[in-house]
Specification:
- With 202 residues, the protein is α+β, with helices and mostly antiparallel strands.
- It is globular, with a radius of gyration of 18 Å.
- The relative contact order is 0.20.
Length: 202
């Protein structure tokens, strides 16, 4: 049996171990299975062979409302899903937080907004969000047909919650898809996300 001091040193040595490499552009997207707002299990790897967008989402966040109340986010969702892209919006808000929406509430809000994602997914323990190091709502990732992350970051370059800034912003998601369609390397493949912090469990 380990003595208390030996056990303490062992625990400290484990906590001091370096973290796994951060997710980066070009890395394989971590697979996951989450339940959507209708109770259906959705597995990321089932969409291999398609382009996939992951959008971290919190309906109460003013930065999210900026893009939904203006129909900017729905416009992106509609444009790309019509072209075969799979759009997955993910809520990593912990149950019990004032910003938490269960499936029924998410369905009501996304219906009100005429949102056009393929699925709204619940990540109540935050494991998927932490695997992707999702920091804000919104925070967006594009995954290519081979299952690799090819874009990660903000939706655009105007770090405000004011919808009036949208027309004069550079939309990084649109620019990334334009580059992919043209067969070019994505010019801005990693940008700094902005918005509300993801409300993870402690």
């Amino acid at each position: 049996m380990l003595k208390p001091l030996t056990l303490l040193l062992a625990v400290l040595s484990l906590t001091a171990m370096p973290r796994a490499h951060a997710l980066s552009v070009g890395a394989n997207a971590p697979d996951f299975v989450l339940t959507d707002s209708h109770g259906k299990a959705v597995k990321l790897s089932d969409f291999k062979g398609k382009q996939v967008v992951l959008e971290w989402f919190n309906p109460n966040c003013p930065f999210v409302r900026k893009h939904y109340n203006s129909k900017n986010m729905q416009g992106l969702q509609s444009t790309y899903t019509k072209n075969g892209v799979v759009w997955l919006s993910i809520s990593s808000t912990v149950p019990g937080h004032e910003d938490f929406y269960d499936g029924k509430a998410l369905n009501a809000k996304t219906s009100e907004w005429n949102a056009a994602a393929n699925h709204y997914l619940l990540d109540p323990d935050g494991k998927v969000g932490r695997n992707y190091e999702a920091k804000t709502t919104p925070h967006l990732f594009i995954i290519n047909e081979a299952g690799q992350v090819v874009y990660m970051g903000g939706i655009d370059d105007k770090r405000s919650s004011n919808p009036a800034d949208i027309p004069n912003s550079k939309n990084f998601v649109k620019a990334a898809f334009d580059d992919l369609k043209a067969g070019r390397a994505i010019a801005s493949a990693s940008t700094t996300p902005y918005g509300c912090s993801v409300k993870y469990t402690k």
